[in-house]
Design brief:
The chain is an alpha+beta fold. It contains 22 helices and 38 strands.
Length: about 900
């Protein structure tokens, strides 16, 4: 073995040890001690919207330690005791990290391999986001309240104090206590139900396969079920049960196809719960209890793919799990590949899933636009330092991960890939793994199955996994549906909007319809009026169809047209009001705000009691982003806004440098400005020959009008059909008229008599609030009340002449308007007749003081002279002696 090879082996080993590192999205010390089992009861309090927990945890020491640290977020811990000794265990909360929560530090000594059992009593709080409580009005039946939880990715710590990391798996035995007649459900196998004396029931579930914290799920409500097979059942509110059953009754066939491709289903039962419309994600793969949004129930099985996706997670994700959230693609990318594989086998149509894969390329592009192509969040192994993994959730791990697995299959072939996954799931079952473990196992398996070395050498693993941006290999997904869509796109773009195009569209599968709408959006064309009307009216897309098709229709209308047609606003509000699926509805509130920010904010505020907190957070972030990224008109207005504009006055706008300030944006032939109170409208022609705005409506009332743009600009990239913007033009239509018959314009103030006086100006019409009184350039404090301006004059503002206090000192004050134009003069004369006497007394006092000082000095000097004479006489006598 040469030295260079040995060095490479050592470096690889060191790299292996380094990357097998701690999950940075948990605050727990799971590498020192891990949970092996939890047992307990969770009680649902619908009145206070809380969950109270009494959980017994079993731990195993991996090292010797003095504390057990669990993840929490917005939980209240009541007590921690050791069940056998009944000893109360001391605990404290560590320093909170906003995006990760607050660590619960339990003071407990343990040794390596020691088993530890602790009981924790706690409750959730209203600040947490995991548990969503719905009022009965928010349900389909509107008779009973409802509860569901969301724990992925790191919301589990808001439900249970736990080691909230996918690296740790444990057994779960939970009872869910709920009021009668509600049904409680947990992600496990149902064991039994007990009646309690307080009008509640406790439903007990056991999870026989170890799971990570994010797969613990709860639901409670008026829930009924129907059986599809010995393994599969559907659950939902009774009002939806038949519809759900008819939509999903093919899941038994799909299960058989999945088992044939990936191996035996190991979870015993597969229950599908269709939740109320507030459920914030399209689906969640909780083991034995898949959660689904009702947006998937269309009556035509067109969105059953998403349910298949959650089923596939029973192998990819639940059975074999990513060890940390930077390897999330191991869950989602593999699942996307297997979902499309199983669906193509079920439908016996590879063209269908290839079209779906093309949609995935659009979704990758969306994520690149959101994060930037060079962002770590566009790689398959993002750096999650300093951020919650929930905050960078995107389609990258799904679709880029899918493309990577699809590329691997293109190298080794369908049959070897199928055999690989069967062996992979068996080899790593019940484990959490990292990227390099998948890589090493794949390479080893391929070598054992005689895949040529040169084929494996083509795979640039590190570039696929760690490089941001687009997929490094462009997979070929061409198919017959793509050809049909491209043909229809050319007809539509060339405005050949005939019955043939209507028939083509109506006969398409939903993926083709979505592909068509996405393509129009990504071609960055602005729809003509004819094209717009064709989509909305002739294809009748304003009537909600398949949820995915409707979503992309709404995105297209909001981003590629200038205004709503009849019925479109109703369609948008109905769409937003019926579902809160933030992973499907991404970007809608941003576009809505750019179309009509007032209506967008109003709609979100009205729906906050309906949406899950995850949906609210997403919508608020989109609106905030839209505010920060508003297209603004940044050209100058060539008129003095302080000029008084009369009816039908014209003012010019300088747009000569608009390209410099607006980049590639181009103006329409004209834009329209209007005031917020709709008292005035202005039409502006903005082509380079005619650059002016004209007040065209009759103005019956003087006032200040803040004009803002309602039809603005378009670009090759984006339509900006905003009704209101935060760029304002102030048009001042007013003249200040003083009522001189009732207004005094000459004031005399003698500070000997009074120290201040109010001067009053009376107006004929209500003046602008910016009217001011100035002494030269110094403003005097005044209060405007209707038609009266009252200003206080005192010695702090205007003073008398201290050299001639008894004589009036004259001030000329001026009243100015918004434009600093002088409208009225006020003469104020000020003296202080008392100040002169004060000055005489001071002078007399000073003179008397000086005289007294002189007299005192005279006597002092005289006494000193006498003392000197006496001393001289004494000296003479002494000399004579």
């Amino acid at each position: 073995m040469n030295t260079k090879y040995l060095l490479n082996v050592i470096i690889s080993l060191m790299f292996f040890l380094l990357i097998k590192s701690i999950d940075i999205s948990t605050l727990s010390n799971y590498q020192n001690i891990k949970i092996t089992q939890l047992d307990g009861i969770l009680e649902v309090d619908f009145t206070n919207k809380l969950i109270m927990g009494d959980i017994t945890f079993k731990f195993k020491g991996l090292k010797t330690g003095k504390e057990i640290i669990l993840d929490t977020n917005y939980l209240k811990i009541n007590s921690i005791i050791e069940p056998i000794t009944k000893k109360e265990i001391q605990f404290k909360f560590g320093k909170r990290i906003d995006y990760l929560g607050t660590p619960l530090i339990i003071e407990y000594n343990y040794k390596q391999d020691e088993n530890v059992t602790l009981n924790i009593k706690y409750s959730t709080t209203k600040e947490g986001n995991s548990a969503q409580f719905l009022t009965k009005e928010q349900t389909e039946g509107k008779n009973y309240p409802y509860l569901f939880t969301v724990s992925e990715m790191i919301l589990g710590r808001e439900l249970i104090p736990i080691q909230d990391t996918p690296a740790i798996k444990f057994y779960v035995n939970l009872g869910l206590k709920v009021i009668k007649p509600l049904i409680g459900m947990v992600s496990g196998i149902f064991e039994n139900v007990t009646d309690n004396k307080d009008g509640t029931q406790t439903f007990y579930y056991k999870q026989k396969i170890p799971i990570p914290s994010y797969l613990i799920a709860l639901a409670a409500g008026n829930i009924k079920n129907k059986t599809i097979s010995d393994v599969i059942s559907v659950y939902t509110e009774p009002e939806m049960l038949d519809l759900v059953y008819n939509e999903l009754n093919d899941m038994d066939k799909i299960m058989n196809i999945a088992e044939n491709y990936m191996g035996k289903y190991k979870w015993e039962k597969y229950n599908i719960l269709v939740l109320p419309k507030s459920f914030p994600i399209s689906g969640m793969e909780n083991p034995c209890l898949t959660f689904c949004s009702p947006c998937l129930i269309n009556g035509d099985k067109s969105l059953i793919d998403i349910v298949v996706h959650e089923l596939i997670h029973s192998w990819s994700g639940n059975l074999v799990t990513n060890e940390n959230w930077s390897d999330f693609w191991l869950n989602e990318g593999i699942t996307m590949f297997l979902q499309r594989k199983v669906v193509s086998l079920w439908k016996e149509d590879k063209n269908y899933t290839k079209t779906d894969a093309i949609l995935g390329l659009f979704y990758i592009e969306d994520s690149l636009n959101t994060f930037g192509e060079n962002s770590t969040y566009t790689s398959l192994h993002p750096n999650l330092t300093g951020i919650s993994p929930d905050d960078v959730y995107s389609d990258i791990p799904y679709e880029k991960g899918f493309n990577f697995i699809y590329y691997l299959e293109s190298l080794i072939g369908d049959e070897i890939m199928k055999n690989f996954f069967q062996m992979y799931f068996e080899y790593f079952k019940f484990q959490s793994i990292q990227y390099f473990e998948f890589k090493n196992y794949f390479i080893e398996f391929c070598k054992n199955n005689k895949v040529p070395e040169e084929t494996l050498n083509k795979i640039d693993w590190d570039k696929w996994i760690f490089s941001p941006g687009k997929c490094i290999v462009k997979n070929d997904f061409s198919n017959k549906y793509e050809e049909e869509v491209n043909y229809a796109l050319e007809k539509f773009i060339n405005e050949k909007l005939d019955d043939d195009l209507i028939n083509i569209f109506n006969n398409w599968i939903h993926t083709s319809k979505t592909f068509f709408l996405l393509s129009l959006n990504y071609r960055k064309i602005i729809l003509t009026d004819r094209q717009h009307k064709f989509l909305t009216n002739d294809l009748n897309l304003k009537q909600n169809q398949n949820f995915l098709v409707t979503t992309n229709y709404i995105r297209l209308i909001l981003s590629r047209t200038y205004e709503f047609l009849d019925g479109e606003m109703d369609c948008l509000i109905d769409y937003l009001s019926n579902y809160g699926v933030f992973d499907y509805m991404e970007g809608i509130y941003e576009l809505f705000y750019k179309r009509d920010e007032i209506k967008a904010v109003e709609t979100l505020n009205n729906l906050k009691s309906f949406y899950h907190t995850l949906m609210i957070k997403k919508a608020e972030e989109e609106i905030e982003y839209a505010k920060r990224n508003f297209f603004l008109l940044k050209f100058n207005f060539n008129y003095n806004q302080c000029s008084f504009l009369g009816i039908s006055d014209i003012f010019n706008i300088n747009v000569s440098n608009y390209k410099e300030s607006l980049g590639d944006l181009i103006f329409l032939d004209k834009i329209y400005l209007e005031s917020e109170n709709d008292k005035i409208k202005v039409e502006c022609k903005l082509n380079l020959e005619n650059k002016y705005c004209k007040i065209k409506d009759n103005i019956t009332k003087y006032g200040n009008y803040y004009l803002n743009i309602i039809k603005r600009i378009q670009s090759d990239n984006y339509a900006v059909p905003v009704q209101r913007s935060n760029y304002y033009i102030k048009v001042y239509i007013k003249k200040i008229q003083i009522n001189e018959t009732s207004t005094k314009n000459n004031y005399e103030i003698d500070y000997n008599i009074k120290e201040s006086e109010n001067i009053i100006i009376n107006f004929i019409n209500e003046p602008d609030e910016n009217v001011r009184i100035l002494n030269e350039n110094t403003e005097i404090k005044c209060i405007l009340k209707g038609l009266i301006l009252e200003c206080k004059i005192n010695n702090d503002i205007l003073s008398y002449d201290k050299d001639k206090p008894k004589e009036f000192k004259k001030y000329v004050l001026k009243l100015v308007d918004l434009c600093n134009e002088e409208k009225y003069k006020i003469i104020v004369n000020i003296k202080n007749s008392k100040e002169g006497k004060k000055s005489l007394f001071i002078y007399i006092f000073i003179i008397i003081g000086i005289i007294l000082l002189v007299i005192i000095l005279f006597f002092i000097m005289r006494k000193q002279i006498k003392n000197n004479e006496i001393n001289n006489s004494s000296d003479t006598i002494l000399l004579e002696k």
